[in-house]
Amino acid sequence: xxxLSIWHVLVFAIVVILLFGTSKLKNLGKDVGGAVKDFKKxxxxxxxxxxxxxxxxxxxxxxxxxxxxxxxxx
Length: 74
Description:
Structural class: mainly alpha
Strand content: under 5%
Number of helices: 3
Largest sheet: none
Radius of gyration: 27 Å
Order of helices and strands: HHH
């Protein structure tokens, strides 16, 4: 039998709870959830930054940058 039965999973869960305790497992769950949330947020921020960088620049926008560059003293 290659698969795990429900009894194998149940015994494994009981052993893990006895070894670590419920408070450590709860904190571990919160930490993993926070890490996943931060990862998703960083992916969304990266996508918006990439989208902003890939937008075609208008002639008006390029002219305003040229004006700013011409006022800077070298």
